[in-house]
Specification:
This protein is an all-alpha fold. It has 7 helices and no strands. Helix 1 crosses helix 3, helix 2 packs antiparallel against helix 4 and helix 2 runs parallel beside helix 5.
Length: 168
């Protein structure tokens, strides 16, 4: 699976990001109003660290789908020929403990999806799409370079606690 993002795909991605951030920015800027989009963005970002499985596959599909849609939209709207891929970035890989944290986050996101309304589900889908595709760029991966250590460290702390290492 191709895990690079084209400029047209990134442009479409940034449009989705704008549509989700603008209402929050124009409103009261309450962090709670970004929870659905932001939480799903974070899950989408860490899914790029999954070496396989459904989350890793979906992360690759998000870039491919955005590239196709972005290239078609760019050409249809402007007549320009879509360009190639932009600089690729990666967050790295998960440890076994970090993978458990991602699994727990996925369960939590699934539960949130189940009780969310239609508008919040759209925000969650947009967040996951943006997170899983924008994190494949060098700039966003660099900005989120702290995330793998945080996820893997949280997983290590969880393991220590479960093994009786005295977290409390």
């Amino acid at each position: 699976m191709n895990t690079t993002l084209t400029l047209a795909g990134a442009g479409l991605d940034l449009g989705i990001l704008y549509l989700n951030i603008r209402p929050w920015w124009k409103g009261g800027r309450n962090p709670k109003d970004l929870a659905h989009f932001g939480g799903s963005f974070a899950l989408g970002s860490v899914s790029t660290m999954c070496a396989g499985g459904v989350l890793g596959w979906l992360a690759g599909c998000s870039a491919a789908g955005l590239n196709r849609a972005g290239n078609t939209t760019l050409h249809g709207a402007t007549g320009a020929t879509p360009g190639g891929a932009i600089a690729h970035g990666s967050l790295g890989t998960l440890t076994q403990e970090g993978a458990v944290v991602v699994l727990i986050a996925t369960v939590v996101a699934g539960a949130a999806w189940k009780v969310a309304g239609k508008a919040d589900r759209r925000r969650m889908a947009g967040g996951a799409l943006c997170g899983s595709s924008l994190t494949l760029t060098a700039g966003v991966a660099g900005a989120l370079s702290w995330l793998p250590a945080a996820v893997n460290g949280l997983g290590a702390a969880l393991r220590t606690g479960l093994e009786g290492g005295g977290l409390l």
